[in-house]
Predict the 3D structure of the following.
Amino acid sequence: MTHRTEAVRRPDRTGPPLTHQGHDMLEYEYHQLRSAELRREAEQARLARSVARARRAARRETREAESQDPRFRRHRFTPAA
């Protein structure tokens, strides 16, 4: 008895037909995993940008507050030796 695998063409793709229909499910699950991973990476990148933006804003506010207070005024040039 010989086992014959029929080629199955996916209706949403124009590529070559698949020889095993179970491959579609593996491909779909791999796509889902990769998609979730990309979403996590994008969220981490957004969070990192947000943190960097907040740190810059805090430094800017501190710098502006120091420039208003004469005690924190920095000298423009270092004294000559």
Q: What stands out?
A: Residues 36-68 form one domain. The CA atoms of residues 26 and 32 lie 10 Å apart. The chain has one helix and no strands. The radius of gyration is 30 Å.
